[in-house]
Amino acid sequence: MTTNDWNRAADEKVAEAERARDELREALGAAGLKLPSLGIDAISCAGPNPLALIDLGRCNIDTARALAVALRSGGAV
Q1: Residue 67 has pLDDT above 60, yes or no
Q2: Cβ neighbours of residue 54 under 8 Å, at least 6 residues apart?
Q3: Domains in the chain: how many in total?
Q4: Beta strands in 1-77, from DSSP E residues, in sequence order
Q5: What is the largest CA-CA distance in the chain?
Q6: Helix ranges, the chain (H)
Q7: What CA–CA distances, in Å, run from 6 to 33, 44, 46, 64?
Q8: Residue 58: left if φ>0, alpha if ψ -120 to 50, beta else—which one?
Q9: Beta bridge partners of 39
Q10: Within a 10 A sphere around the Cβ of 52, how many other Cβ atoms?
Q11: In which domain, by residue range, is 25 found?
């Protein structure tokens, strides 16, 4: 695999993580929830083989409880 191939693969991994983040943000919004710090972990996107992790961030107590309720009532994945 060439360097350009590695770069394209890494870029696609990050783009995939961004799409997943956006899907999660939309689903949370539909449930009336917002995680203010939801984003992509920049450090995990570095290097030739990025993990591209989604950082759920921090939220207040009310949001944590609302998220727990939504998960309990939402059914299996």
Answers
A1: yes
A2: 17, 20, 21, 24, 38, 39, 40, 41
A3: 1
A4: 39-40, 54-55
A5: 49
A6: 3-30, 61-73
A7: 37, 16, 12, 38
A8: beta
A9: 55
A10: 21
A11: 3-73
77 pLDDT more than 80: no
Residue 39, helix vs strand vs coil: strand
Residue 54: strand, helix, or coil: strand
Q: Are 42 and 21 within 8 A, CB to CB?
A: no
* Nearest alpha-carbon partner for 57 in 45, 42, 73, 76: 42
First to last CA, the chain: 35
Whole-model pTM?
Answer: 0.82
Average pLDDT over residues 27-47: 91
